[in-house]
Amino acid sequence: MSYNNILSDHDNGITTITINRPSKLNALNKETIAELHDAFAKADQEASTKAIIITGSGEKAFVAGADISEFADFSVEEGAVLARKGQEDLFDYVENLSTPVIAAVNGFALGGGLELAMAAHFRLASDNARMGLPEVSLGVIPGYGGTQRLPQLVGKGRAMEMIMTAGMIDANTALDYGLINHVVSQEELVPLAEKIAGKIMRNSSVAIAAGIKAINAGFTDGINGFDAEIDAFGTCFGTEDFKEGTTAFLEKRKAAFPGK
Ligand code: COA
Fold it and tell me: Second label for 120, Cα 20 to 30 Å away, from 39, 74, 86, 153?
């Protein structure tokens, strides 16, 4: 698939996906969502990709939301399909990827933009970033998982206030809320994401994938996270990475994980 709305670059074990519609503040239209799905799937399948960074092009926006011009005249049925398909193809898909996904929020992350950042495994932001779920100001609610992931990350009361007021919070407030893990200048943002990705890459990718699965299990209805952890823990004992990691420790050398 060739891309019209995103860029995907691979370097040193990291795939960086950049949403590239700066004239529309990187708003997520249907085509962009399809391209993102494709780029995430390819990066996840590539054994050489150990971490994925998602960011936006330009200095102003990560993503200013779903593309309002595409759904303004939708019916009830079309609205539901939009949310379901978006959740399946991109937002749930990213959250459940085996490869770590870091969102580098470089400006406005609104509506679907904040929902995409929240679907990533964790988030960093530049000090100019502003985040919010403004959907009720348009007469709709967040439909790409925002009503579920925001309370998981910031707590129910803060999520209620953010969603009801349709307001934006700045990067330091987001840090204080636990919505993001670090705030740096715009120039330092992607380098910091790469530095953290570098630390991640030293570890066993199969164990990391098992960790993502176990953590997500605790946030999935009908699944006992503790049981999921026990299963995933046991599975690790059958991997080559486990053999290498424990052997390297006992031999007092650095592990060279085969990633299997
Ligand atoms: N969908 C479609 N187009 C969008 C968009 C969105 N979510 N967000 C921004 N754009 C477009 C604007 O229409 C404008 O296009 P134009 O130049 O062809 O008119 C361009 O991006 C620049 O945006 P603009 O509003 O002129 O920039 P600004 O600096 O004045 O305001 C925002 C920035 C983010 C405050 C403002 O764009 C905004 O409120 N966007 C919508 C946010 C939103 O409600 N998102 C949730 C959607 S469910």
Answer: 74
> Residue with the nearest Cα to atom 8 of ligand 1?
64
CA distance 239 to 243: 7
Residues 22, 26: Cα–Cα separation, whole Å: 5
The contacts of residue 209 (CB under 8 Å, 6+ apart) are 98, 99
Q: Is 59 annotated in the active site?
A: no
User: What is d(CA 167, CA 137) in angstroms, rounded to the nearest whole number?
Assistant: 9
Identify the residue whose tokens are 């904040």.
114
Q: Is the pTM of this model over 0.90?
A: yes
HSE-up (13 A, CA, CB side) for residue 72: 4
C-alpha of residue 132 to centroid of ligand 1, in Å: 13
Distance (Å) of CA 25 to CA 28, 63, 67? 9, 6, 10
**Residues with C-beta less than 6 Å from any ligand 1 atom:** 24-25, 27, 64-69, 108, 110-112, 134-135, 138
Kindly tell me the sign of the dihedral angle through the C-alpha atoms of 233, 116, 79, 142: positive
Residue in this structure with the two tokens 């650095």, named with its chain if needed: 254
CA of 25 to the centre of ligand 1 (A): 6
Point out the catalytic residue in the list 115, 161, 229, 244.
115
Q: What is the pLDDT of residues 131-187, one digit of tens each?
A: 999 999 999 999 999 999 999 999 999 999 999 999 999 999 999 999 999 999 999
Q: What's the CA gap between 146 and 166, in Å, rounded?
A: 12
> 135, 229, 244, 251: which is the annotated catalytic residue?
135
244 given a catalytic annotation: no
Residue 167 corresponds to which tokens in the numbers above?
């307001």
